[in-house]
Amino acid sequence: MPGLGNRSNGSNTISFHINGKHHEVPLVGTYSASTSLNDYIRNEAGLTGTKVMCREAGCGCCAVSVTTADHAGNGHTTQSINSCLCPLASADGWQITTVEGLGGEKEGYHPIQKRIADFNGTQCGYCTPGIVMAMYGLLHEKSRPTEQEVEDNFDGNICRCTGYRSILDAMKSFAADTSIEGGGVIDIEDLNKKLCPRTGEPCTDDHSAANGADICGLHVQIGGSQWFRPTSLTELGGVMRNAKDKKMRLLFGNTSTGIFKNEGPFDVYIDIREVKDLYEIKETETSVKFGANTSLSTFIKKLKELKDSQPGFHYFPALVKHLKLVGNVLMRNAASIAGNLMIKHNHHDFPSDVFATTEALGAKVEIYDSKDGSRQTYTVQDFVRRVNMKGKVLVSLELPALDTLDTFRSYKVTPRSQNAHAYVNAAFKLKISSGRQILGKPSIVIGGISKTFFHAEKTEDFLRGKEIKDAVVKEALALLQGELKPSADPVLAPPQYRRDLAVNLLYKTLLGITAPSDAKMASGSSDIERPLSSGIQTWQDKKDEWPLKQALPKKTAKLQASGEAEYVNDIPKYKQELCGALVLTSVASATIESIDPAPALAIPGVEQYITWSDIPEGGINNAYARYTTWPLPAEEVFCEGQVEYAGQAVGMILAENQDLADEAAKKVVIKYKDVKKPILTFEDAIEAKSTHSCFVGPATIGNPDEAIAQSDHQIEGEVRIGQQYHFYMETICSLCVPGEEGMEVYITTQAGDVIQIGVSGILNKPQNYVNVHVPRLGGSFGGKFFTSSHIALATAVASYATGKPVRTSTSLSNTMKTAGKRPHLLAKYKVGCTREGKINGIIMDVYMDNGKSNSMQFAVAEFTTQMDQGYHCPNWRITPTIIKTNKAPSAPVRGPGTTPCSAMIETILEHVANAVKKHPILVKEINLYEKDQKDITGQVLRYCTMRQVWDKLKTEAEVPRRMDEIEAYNRANTWKKRGITMAAVKYGMMLMDHGMPLLLSVYAGDGTVTVVQGGVEMGQGLYMKVAQAVAHGLGIPVDMVKVRPNLSYVVPNSSITGGSTTSERAVYAALEACKTLREKMDPIKAKLPPDADWQTLVKASLKAKIDLAAKSTPFAEGAAGAAAGDHHAYFTYCAAVAETNLDVLTGEYGIDRVDIMFDCGESLNPMIDIGQIEGGFVCGLGFNLLEDIVYDKDTGAVLNDGTWEYKPPTTKDIPIDWRIHLLPDAPNPVGIRSSKATGEPSTGLSAAAMLSLKRSVEEASKDLTGSSTFVPVDIPFTLDKIQQNVGIKLEHLKM
């Protein structure tokens, strides 16, 4: 075969460079066709700075840059891509750069790594290498980008910790137009821009190798499949003809496997990336033809360049705007035009934006038939519907030049702002005369309706030749409504919304073409546009206590940015190590009849199947075996027969590597009997009387019945709250290593003590048999407590049974199936208030869905002790009920009780405002807590700053002026509505009963200090605050202090890290240890000269036989000076103002501005605390507006178990204008060094954004229907709920 023989007769290897180092990779017997570049980088090259999480190109943590031949231009090109979906064999001939290749501690950090660290753009750090590499790729493409180009570049990078603002500021500081302090463009020399794809060295001016001269065809065997890489269309045709009877896959970027994961394996893989014939871009006066291999990023770039080249290309900017919403930058760099269209060809229900837009434009595709070399041209729709692509290749896409009278509009309405598939996408092309007549037949293409609906043919025919006027538009919209029959799918938006949305998009288009007679209607034609985001942060410095209370980035931030920070799954592989994957149930309520692991064990490389029967004699099959500190109910590590939720572990497959174990686990056959319909809803559970016991009874304060009965207004309503998954970027990982005297357990957990006790219990060993190591966590948010115990104990059993090290790294899908989430909640309330809106009494029935187990019952206590939040009510009755369903046991998520409490009480205040016909802000402020009032627990609020926080915020944010402006705007606009409201949080801090041990060691040689303490670093800045405290306590620089990972045999019996208070407790422990040490050293210091430095004191102390170590284990009682009998140690007070902008027709919105005033006492580190406030708020936005778990109603299985359907916030879901102020002059009299905790309170403030949007919905509904009915709160308040609650009917759609 021409061009392919050289490589096929060789050693069956591929080669590439990583960070300048040549890698020659033999493929036989080692790898499969599904082996990714990420697998090789991490597992073989040992470069674990490149992370892995979703394996769907949906999170960005796996980003690397690749330098390849540029067949669409000259020379070579460097771009960042997701390594998780890139096949290893595709990388042949590439130059690959990982985060380690940019810089590190030894050789010096790269400017990008420095900048993101200095701007506090990293918290847990797991996503940081991917963000660094995404920026690196952008600067290679454009060394002087604008701030807008930088902000647009991070649509594919998810961060659950930071809230994104600090990341964006750090990256925008490289922009040519930046005004950010500490910013500036990067020098080309610093970027190391010219790396040769052939040698891996800096390139000379001769790029003959880079432009493809040395790239020959490739034919290798890999994992039982053949892999071809032809270099011409002729060669490609030959390969396809020879393989015509085999299962064959053509690929370019392989991005479709992130969506359709179960296709393959294939006999033949053909990588078409080097087929130069498929890159041609040809422009004429009548069209532009793009080669099928044109990447989506290049497609966008060329459209921008060509927009002014011909009059008929005037629509290119509109097309670019739409295409920038396809996937994300990292994906678009790897994906091609042909790939996107082929997904639509193979999966008609896929809402392809390339298809929708190009079909509406009348584009054509050219198809090459390998059978005879012929070429045929088709419309895009005919290609998708009618062309059998067996043996054929898509060669090009041709975009026509349009007439100057042609108008093109397109839309993509998505679950979140970016990196999301469409609820509905639509494209419209109409030729309009000067007299508003439609000339000819318009083109109306709508996706997201069903797999058979493409064109609105009846509506197109009706509009042909019609004049655009009110009567015609109404008839067209009614006709379109009639021909739209959306399919039902539990993970899609409801059919009614998708139909209404499509109708409204046509209305928006027609409204934009003509000037409406009613000026109030004009706003309907425009989209919600998001300008460049910005932020302001203010705080009061306390220089007299520096380095404590100094705004400093984390000491480990640069290590995280360089990929040198080690997480559990980065630990190098042990000899004889096996990898484990849980075998999970697929139904939620049944009995296991039999389990057959034989199909899995037959796979080469699969070693063993572990079940409950492998638990040693006397061991306890309970995830919390022997743990007694908290009343946690028993939960089987391995199901022994009775299945109680889909995703329950029944066993573990052990194999040579993680990918093999994951795939083999799916082959285990489980047969069920007595399968029942699962209980999944409140209504089902109540009907079945399926409840858990509840240790908290009804809480009554005063006489709420009488207070409500005597009130001017009695109001009733309900709040529904969905489930939220933690979405930690590092999934659960456990590594268990058996040794001569016990077992070393490396685990991603917030609760090392629970793990140590649990492993000893399941193995029936003493506790000192188990040593638990917790290096750091890649995020947690409450999610690495319960679930981590299951994974750690299962892995320990496997390691004990085999006598080998076993590592279990759970996939995102399996984690989402088996892990607990924030519980579903239903709250029914009755409220009494005065005419002015002052609340007299509240009665609430709160139902919490805890899943199959009652491990989250402690959260119920928060409903009875924190429901009031920032508002005083003298009379309460709260009755909690815990529902039992066939779901994974619920788990705490950031602010487990307080976040939903905020949503509930803020809803009640908004409902009261609706009833008394006042703005919610005015009602809320007359109900705020005042100093010395008693709260819902009877605790006297001695140091209450709620009023001070509220009033100062209201003034700083100019709330009265903005309220007037918004009211005027809403009167003038029907289809756009702005909203504004405020929220108040009173977060009660509780210090857990367990101690917080800390060991401080001073080294006499140079005076440096090491600290090991009981808290877990998971992004909250714990290590940094401890280092600052030690530096302050000993009077030494922070750089002399290192905080080491949590080790159970150094700091035993540690408290769980959670509830926001661990950092301050650890700081207290550090200060106490310093005090102890200084007391021992003071007599020595007194004998030294006054100017003696620290090193001199240390050496003298050692000479005087002073123990240069100190330990402190403060318990809750000693850590703060709260009054005896108080339920909470102290309260964190904060408030927020949220202003939003709503597109009434679609439900899309922008969070235009958020102002937060936060009383954190005297912050131990303002930079870190503001990062916590931002991260908590954005997590809350996900809770209130975006995130929920969807279950199969028949099986109980989680349906949205990946990034394709589960959508946490991204960079453009955060507030556009975001201002955060730490309340000055507000020391906490009972806090650690006058401080307060910050990790969770701000999560509740995000209810303001949701309720501002809901208020806009009510304003719009009142405009259209005259009704002032209060819209019930159903969280998350997603686009479909927003739009459908307005109540738009066809008669409202006026011209």
From TrEMBL:
Example of a GO MF term: iron ion binding
UniProt xrefs under PROSITE patterns: FAD_PCMH
Gene3D superfamilies for this protein: 3.10.20.30, 3.30.465.10, [2Fe-2S]-binding domain (1.10.150.120), Aldehyde oxidase/xanthine dehydrogenase, a/b hammerhead (3.90.1170.50), Aldehyde oxidase/xanthine dehydrogenase, molybdopterin binding domain (3.30.365.10), CO dehydrogenase flavoprotein, C-terminal domain (3.30.390.50), Uridine Diphospho-n-acetylenolpyruvylglucosamine Reductase, domain 2 (3.30.43.10)
UniProt entry tagged with the keyword Magnesium: no
Residues holding [2Fe-2S] cluster 2: C124, C127, C159, C161
The entry's keywords: 2Fe-2S, FAD, Flavoprotein, Iron, Iron-sulfur, Metal-binding, Molybdenum, NAD, Oxidoreductase
Cofactor: FAD; [2Fe-2S] cluster; Mo-molybdopterin
Positions annotated to bind FAD: S336, I337, A338, G339, N340, D349, L394, K412
Cofactor remark: Binds 1 Mo-molybdopterin (Mo-MPT) cofactor per subunit. Binds 2 [2Fe-2S] clusters.
Residues the record lists as binding Mo-molybdopterin: Q750, F781, R894, G1059
Enzyme active site: E1240
Pfam families noted in UniProt: Ald_Xan_dh_C, CO_deh_flav_C, FAD_binding_5, Fer2, Fer2_2, MoCoBD_1, MoCoBD_2
Positions annotated to bind [2Fe-2S] cluster 1: C54, C59, C62, C84
Coiled-coil segments: none
Residue span, FAD-binding PCMH-type domain: 220-404
InterPro entries noted in UniProt: 2Fe-2S-bd, 2Fe-2S-bd_dom_sf, 2Fe-2S_ferredoxin-like_sf, 2Fe-2S_ferredoxin-type, Ald_Oxase/Xan_DH_a/b, Ald_Oxase/Xan_DH_a/b_sf, Ald_Oxase/xanthine_DH-like, AldOxase/xan_DH_MoCoBD1
PANTHER family: ALDEHYDE OXIDASE 1-RELATED, XANTHINE DEHYDROGENASE
Homology family: Belongs to the xanthine dehydrogenase family.
The protein, known as: FAD-binding PCMH-type domain-containing protein
